[in-house]
Amino acid sequence: MASAVSEKLADYFECAVCMEQFKEPKVLPCLHTYCKMCLQELLKEQGSDYVINCPECRQEAKIAHGDVAKLQPNFWVNNFMTLLRMQDKDTTKPFPCENCDSEDEAVSRCNDCRVFMCDFCVTAHKRFRATRGHQMLSIAEVQKLGSKALSKPSFCVKHTGETLKLFCETCEETICRDCTIVDHREHKYNFVADVAEREREVLHILLNKAKGKEVVVANGLETVYAMKELVQSRVSEVNNEVDEFFDEQVKALEYQRANLKREVMTEGKVRVDQLEKQSRVLSSFLAQLKSGVEFTSQALDDGDNVQLLTMKNQLSQRLTQLSSTKIDCKPCQNEYFKLCVRQTIWRNMKDLATVFFIINPQMFSVSIVGGEEGVMYRTLVGQTVSLVVTNKDREERGEYHVAASVAMTGEDEESLPTFGNNNGSHSFYFCPTSKGTVTLSVTVDGQPVGGSPFQWEVYPVLPICDEPKPKQVLPGGFQAMYGSRPYERGTTHGNCFKDGRYCWTLRVGDFASYHRRFEIGVTTGIKCKGGIQTWSLSVNGDRFQRVIRSDRVLSKGMSIEHDDVFTVFLNLETETLSIYHDRSQTTEVFKGVKGPLRAITTGVDIF
């Protein structure tokens, strides 16, 4: 082409499959564009469906009835390719008239009819009464205005000659005037221009969200690249340390040095490979984000209202899909390893030195058993709190030492014994004997885990009974909570929980004295539409003593026995209620739990 810009643009509008300029460009749901014929060749039959795997992002697209022609055309690519053709001064074939079959060179374009015309058609156009008032643009003016001047009118496929001027909001499709009489009678519809303005705002919101995700992923990719370099650099540094150490030793140590270097290289390769794999995933997803953002931006900038609305759903679905995709942008590996020299006797030469892979303490979480990960709840005096330290890095190897200590308000710090579990986690227990603030410190190999030290409040044990009583306010801010049988739910005994996080432990009492009644959970205690709102587990006379959720779903793995222990976790910040059954080690979770609430404690005792 004549100019470098034109050549660059021409390359940009090449199909990634045939490596030629687009011919009838069609858009896949992932917003990547290919020639219609290229897509036809990529079409595969998969059972009763027809699918195309995008060559760029590998996302699978289902093609209805295998008809590639029904895919949306890339209108702005078509427009820009027309502009390129007009700017191509080296071409031997002039830009032809679109109004007649003469193939004469076009000299103007009617802005109303939106077609290019030769000199003869322009003259005729200006003579006809119906068209002589139309605005005619010269080729130079069209080039100056850009792709927006090349948009073409969209006609209804059902009603010949009728333009798509309306948008049916019931069916979410563009329609013509005749469509409102036949297929869309009594539907809600509006003018394209009015709906397009609103939908542009929606797409702008989705676009901004996708752009934000693009920045996050791009930053994450840079972090992964940086971490990969750190790991590679650390591999080199550790290898140098190994060399410096073993160069001072006798030749008898050479075999051990080779083993250690191999271990370093293996670990480095594992981490680099994992980071490389993660970088490929992030690169691919970043490319999808860039493609989706760029495509939608072009559609918003260059598309007319009809074309925009025609692709609205596809654009919205793709941007929503990209923005909602969960992807880990933090490096999946770290550079935490170094040479650890052991000053042992020469006869233990094989253990003289080893590569020590440092544990990353930030990859550990501390949770109350049965509760949400990493969340601390307000607890009760005299109730044992079971905690677990979990390594979130499933691929982390090696042994590590976990230590825990706790201090109550005004008391000295005391160490808590920890116990290793078979799954790599560690457990420990703490039973507060007085109210106040708990400060818990947890370390791994002497380094504090993420979030340590943890703090929560301990409140007095709450009294409980099975009959309605006046509301009481207890020291520490709690209000008394009472048991309630199902037929008493219309009575409010006082709201205990309005905000924050709480947990309490309950033991199943004598079933016979409660007439085989059992229910634990929380309730609003007030009437609303549909009655009182309750989130609970119950056994209502079932001889198998099976547990049923308040939403009438049978609990899996739970049944009631005398002296069974349950722990109730209420998190009003995340609107979550979790009820943990100690014997079966299963948890039932309720979402959308909103206060103020009081506890339901039928057939159980607080201990």
From TrEMBL:
It comes from the Eukaryota. SUPFAM superfamilies: B-box zinc-binding domain, E set domains, RING/U-box. Coiled coil: none annotated. Signal peptide: none annotated. Pfam families: Filamin (PF00630), zf-B_box (PF00643), zf-C3HC4 (PF00097). Belongs to the TRIM/RBCC family. This is Tripartite motif-containing protein 45.
